[in-house]
Amino acid sequence: MVRQKKIHAPRIIRNMTVTVQFYSYCKDLTGCAQAVEKLPAGATIESLLQQLHARFPRLVPMRNSTLIAVGVDYQPRSHVLKEGDEVSLFPPVQGG
């Protein structure tokens, strides 16, 4: 009896693209209004922020106060992103 060796298919890692909109002071810090980021499937807002902080280091001091929305809803940093999501970054809201 000949044993056949099992061949495992390579693991497919899919990437997704999200668009990031920068508003107000965030726009000033990045020098742009929009960025397109590629992330692995299943990435969270937190992993997107880490990538953005590497690309735009001037955002790092605002990491604890930045407001983040996906579409029109504010989301926690644990929110899992999907292909084509539009993420918006805002500085803290101030009133007077």
Description of the molecule:
There is one protein chain. This protein has helices at 25-30, 45-55; strands at 15-22, 34-40, 67-70, 73-74, 86-90. It is an alpha+beta fold. The protein has a single domain, classed as Roll (Ubiquitin-like (UB roll)), CATH 3.10.20.30. It has a five-stranded mixed sheet with strand order 2-1-5-3-4. It is elongated.
List keywords for this structure.
96 residues; alpha+beta; Ubiquitin-like (UB roll); 2 helices; 5 strands
Overall CATH class = Alpha Beta
* CATH fold descriptor: Ubiquitin-like (UB roll)
Distance between the termini: 83 Å
Oligomer: single chain
CATH H level, superfamily name: Beta-grasp domain
Strand content: 25-35%
Q: How many separate helices? A: 2
Determine the mean pLDDT. Answer: 90
Radius of gyration: 18 Å
Largest sheet: 5 strands, mixed
Q: What is the CATH architecture annotation?
A: Roll
Could you give the order of the helices and strands? Answer: EHEHEEE
Summarize the amount of helix as a percent range: 10-25%
Give the CA-based shape. Answer: elongated
Output the structural class: alpha+beta
> How many structural domains can be distinguished in the coordinates?
1
